[in-house]
Amino acid sequence: MLSFNPDNVALPQGHYINGEHRTDGGSFFSVSRPSDGHTAGELAEANASLVDEAVEVADRAVKESGWASCPPRQRGAILRRWADLIEADTQLALLEALASTRPVYDVKHHEIPFTAEAIRFYAECADKYSGDLLPTRDASLGMLIPEPYGVIGAITPWNFPLSMASWKCGPALAAGNAVVLKPSELTPYSTVRFAELARQAGLPAGVLNIVQGSGAVTGSALVAHPLVRKVSFTGSTQTGARIMSDAAHHGMKPVTLELGGKSPQLVFDDAGDIAEVAGRILRGFTANGGQACVAGTRLIVQRGIADALIDKLIALCQGFKPGVTWDENSRYAPLIDRRQAAKVQQVTEAAVRQGGEILTGGKRFENTGEGYFWQPTLLSNVVANSPAIQEEIFGPVLSVQVFDSEEEGLVLASHPTYGLCAGVHTKNLDRALRAIRGIAAGTVWVNRYGRSGDFIIPTGGFHGSGIGKDLGRQAFEACQRYKSVLIDF
User: Mind listing the domains of the chain with CATH numbers?
Assistant: First the structure.
């Protein structure tokens, strides 16, 4: 039985610094439940002084605990124990579902196993990737030696709190760093439990610290701190640009930025079974209520199958039912808050004013009280400069564009700002390879849409969708700096 009463869940209070809970800081902020709009609790925001303390604790802990210098297999063993505790814990699913958009069923059966397996993957990286011996002249020895940065500042979004935390903490800790993590102020609770379990697994106190607060206050202080040697952020392109600028002005520290997307789903008339393709497209733009940077919210379909595919999508969209995230039978996510619901509504209305047509959806579900549940929405006849085509909406809204030739389809699939990912649906291998080459995106999926459990495949975007990679060995290597050594003998 996964269903639970959110009023009966004990919420972890405040920050987690040096293995202890802290409730001090600056001003207070409220945390709301997206499913019903009720207030879950209030937390103190970490001001610059508290962020400074958390970073100094992390810097001291990574040096004095020996975390950076201990045998890599030892670090890996602690991370593997942590993954086991994550998988077995009974509180994580409740904390994640209560204050986020993630239904408890999805958290229990998908989010938590994914999070634990990500930690296990990086536990194995700890002693698998190292430096290199370099070819030099006979009387010398050249080496490239990896070292941890020290303290890495991590900032995670609200849409997938636990899995995003594992993306940041797994590679950073496996490489021997300490982490100061700021979760979104909208979804603060599960990440604290995540850190508690790391401590139980044997991670030294202070090597992983959690600070709560807004990006403007807590996040900015974290990015600017001189002892934070690298920053890893997942979130909007606009915020990523500010972080990149702040990092350049405070120590020239490297950044990994996984940012926004406006991803195409390019469907050719040889894509195969219409029902199967429609199911892929549906999941691509409705998963987590469309609140994913990788959401495939631009359907670009060849004219020969456009009507059949659209009809199938309309029927599928009309089968969704809203439900609070703490009900085990719920599968459809609410929007995170009132502000996000207003944005989805504004973009939809703007598309209609510019001549677009709502084929299905286009409004909130009725009888959901203060919950922010938006109906899966299909828009057709949308002009090219419409926000529904150009902007990341972060809601379950799919714009439909029709093309005739392959070349026209590839032109429509391109985007002036974003290049995070794309889906290509075709049974023609030559056409698929041409599309892979022709679409500027960090990830291209063919005859599927969405990530798998293959953690070896990195993710990250082109252009305004980011810099660097999460997942894969690339994320682990990005948590190390490399020292060149030349020895004469």
Answer: 6-259+465-488 (3.40.605.10), 264-453 (3.40.309.10)
**Rounded CA gap, 28 and 14, in Å?**
10
Selected catalytic residue, list 125, 169, 293, 421: 293
Active site residue 293: yes
Q: Parallel, antiparallel, or unpaired for β 443-446 and 15-17?
A: unpaired
Beta strands 28-32; 39-44: pairing state = antiparallel
With H, G, I as helix, E, B as strand and everything else as coil, classify residue 105: helix
pTM over 0.85: yes
258, 317, 392, 479: the catalytic one is 258
pLDDT in tens, 408-441: 999 999 999 999 999 999 999 999 999 999 999 9
Q: Is 258 a residue of the active site?
A: yes
Where do we find the tokens 């077995």?
A: 88
- Residue 263: CA atoms inside 13 Å, Cβ hemisphere, count? 32
Report pLDDT digits (tens) over 331-344: 999 999 999 999 99
CA contacts within 13 A on the Cβ side of 6: 24
